[in-house]
Amino acid sequence: MADPRYQPLTRKSFLRKAIRNIGGLVGLGVATGVYAYGWERTWLEVVRLSVSLPALPESFRGTKLVHFSDVHLGHFCEPKDLHQIAEQIAAEKPDLICFTGDIVDEGTRVLSSVVPILSELQAPYGKYAVLGNHDYRAKEQQAVRHAWAASGFEVLDNRNIRLSKKEDELFIAGIDDALHGVPNLTQALTGIPAGKAVILLAHEPDFADEAAQHPISLQLSGHSHGGQVRLPFIGHLLTPKLARKYVQGLYQVGPHSMYVYTNRGLGTTILPVRLFCRPELTILTLT
């Protein structure tokens, strides 16, 4: 006897169900795109963590370091957006401010508008920056360097700066962009005595494999955007060259157990979206 609940699947009912399912998927895709562009892309996450550096002198313990990266001005990021970030940085009252590359995306005309914003940032141990691959893509890397200098930032192109407090020392070093510049780590570390704490700024995080062969305490990087789009249980879908091993967050690398911290960045590139990968401002307390 036939089951009265049974309804044969006709061509018409099959098409109706298929269209309904496709419509649901399209609606979900549109909603995800709207969220990724209109909400998460600008939903800043402030990440706070302590990093224990064995070589850090007693007088520098408790130093608050603000790390930001990858603003990509001009790619759906305007000076007003950076102004809000700068206000957040200032509210932290940092001891030290570090930027790890890609202030612009493809052009430098907007830089004159952000120099006053960046100039307002203050930190007793100074403000430091390195260039990223997009700063070179503009083919006006000198304009980028001049804008940082005009903003009171030290651009660390293969060199280091000595910070001193009482009789203690901490060194901030930086290298040129590893993709389009001429990075020279030996030059960047020149003059640093053995046994001193060194923080290295390097745009591309996978440079850590080379840096970790030296007695460097901490490398700060960006470049990866954390993948910019991440999926549950899968993680990032795509990252650029030299950002495929140390994609986001804190790692320890090499024979000296050097710390690497990869910041997810503030802006976007290629596509103006973020999904499960919020823009990041990092507050590091050195212990």
Short description:
The chain has 287 residues and is an alpha/beta fold. The protein has seven helices and 14 strands.
Kindly describe this structure:
The chain is α/β, with parallel strands linked by helices and 287 residues long. It has two domains: 11-42; 45-286, Purple Acid Phosphatase, chain A, domain 2, CATH 3.60.21. The chain has helices at residues 11-38, 79-91, 111-119, 133-137, 141-150, 185-188, 208-211; strands at residues 45-51, 63-68, 96-100, 127-130, 154-155, 159-165, 168-174, 197-201, 218-221, 230-231, 235-236, 249-253, 258-262, 280-286. The chain has a six-stranded mixed sheet, with helices on one face. The longest helix is centred in the first third of the chain and has 28 residues, at 11-38. The chain is globular and about 80 Å long. The chain starts with 10 loop residues before the first helix and ends with a strand.
Ordered list of secondary-structure elements with their pairings:
Elements lengths: L10 H28 L6 E7 L11 E6 L10 H13 L4 E5 L10 H9 L7 E4 L2 H5 L3 H10 L3 E2 L3 E7 L2 E7 L10 H4 L8 E5 L6 H4 L6 E4 L8 E2 L3 E2 L12 E5 L4 E5 L17 E7 L1
Parallel strand pairs: 1-14, 2-3, 3-4, 4-5, 7-8, 8-9, 9-13
Antiparallel strand pairs: 2-14, 6-7, 10-11, 12-13
